[in-house]
Amino acid sequence: MARESRPRVLVLVGATASGKTATILHLAQELPLEVISADSRQIYRYLDIGTAKPTQEERRRVPHHCVDIRNPDETYSAGEFAADALRLIPALWARGKLPCVVGGSGFYIHALCYGLFEQPPLPLLRAVRQELQARLQREGREALYEELQRVDPVSAARYPDRNPQRILRALEFYYATGIPLSRAHQLLPPTERPFQTFWVGLAWERRQLYERINRRAEWMWQNGLVEETARVLSMGYAPDAPGLNTHGYKECIAYLAGQLSAAEALALMQRRTRQYAKRQLTWFRRYDHIHWIAADPNPAVTAARLKELLQRWLPEHVRACSLPEAGSGDARTPAGNSSQQTGGHESEMMPPGRTV
Question: Which ranges of 225-293 would DSSP assign to H, the alpha helix?
């Protein structure tokens, strides 16, 4: 069958610990695909356990792009991700691969699929950024966050974790343009993209998702997360480096500094990760074109449901053979415990959309 010249792209989204990676790895047993990772944490080298990064063996079997591309003290914007993905998509399609954008970083995915507003001139941005960074050192993160609440309360509400990089970026844009960053997003005109997308979301009942998050955090803590954090710090990276300034690593740093006990740090990590999952699903609620499917503790079952959807959208990519029989569940981490009841009904956390 002749292939269309305009690439088609599968966009697979969901909250952290929803099983996106395990699902796509199972799907790759049947379909010729490669992954473009839309995960703002997996971009960092050396940070493997706390970001639930696919293993080297998994990445040998199924190539993952946009993983391990920055050091922990570097940044990677949504615009940079979009530019990289826009180069990758036609190249993968030309090689007969289905490009699969997989992740929970909604702003990355939005930038790729819908574009971003035009940035102010670089020299102006640099000058504003330098001044704001100096103020961050003098006045602290809380003072700048309160300032952001005054000039752009919508953006401030999106950053309850008070991530300094995001605070600086929002203030930087406001002082360089006079327009709140949140308002600029609303004014962005639709951008025609050189590909077609099909969006699928993995939905869980709230209790099941939170149990998966808690179990995965426990597994990370017991399988080297503290040691990984200590190793990265020993390499000379600052505790507030962008790669470390996120749930999991922040709690480990507090534990290593003697500020929290192991039990306190783990509980805080679990709570912050649950809060992060809730923010992710709130973000995806804005997209009414997402096809939400009930995820299963066994990722082979979820992959079969996803394949059934793809047969309608991209039949030339989907072979007639069936996916392997459901096996022992998600072997990547205990979050996929197959003894759990199947999440076959709508989740109270699932954003509205079409449900299969």
Answer: 225-234, 249-256, 262-284
Structure tokens at 18: 């929803």
Secondary structure element (H or E) that encloses residue 328, with its range = none
Say which residues have a Cβ less than 8 Å from residue 318's Cβ, sequence separation at least 6: 30, 31, 307, 310, 311
Q: Which of 303, 330, 306, 327 has its CA nearest to residue 212?
A: 330
Q: Who's near 198: CB < 8 A, 6+ residues apart?
A: 8, 9, 10, 11, 291, 309, 310, 313, 314
What percent of the residues of the chain are helix, what percent strand, and what percent coil, each to the nearest 5?
A: 50, 10, 40
What sign does the CA torsion over 202, 188, 39, 10 have? positive
Q: Kindly indicate the confidence band of residue 356, based on its pLDDT and cuts at 50, 70 and 90.
A: very low
| Multiple choice CATH, 8-115+195-213+281-355, 3.40.50.300, 3.40.50.720, 3.20.20.450, 3.40.50.280 | 3.40.50.300
CA distances from 171 to 32, 110, 163, 182 (A): 43, 21, 12, 11
Q: What are the DSSP calls for 176-204, one per residue? A: HHSS-HHHHHHHPPP---SSEEEEEEEE-
Task: Kindly report, residue by residue over 45-69, the tens digit of the pLDDT.
Answer: 999 999 999 999 999 999 999 999 9
Q: What are phi and psi of 268, to 5 degrees?
A: -70, -40
pTM: 0.78
Question: What is the secondary structure of 18-72 as a DSSP string?
Answer: S-HHHHHHHHTTTS-EEEEE--TTTTBTT--TTTTPPPHHHHHHS-EESSS-B-T
Q: Identify the band that residue 335 occupies on the pLDDT scale cut at 50, 70 and 90.
A: low
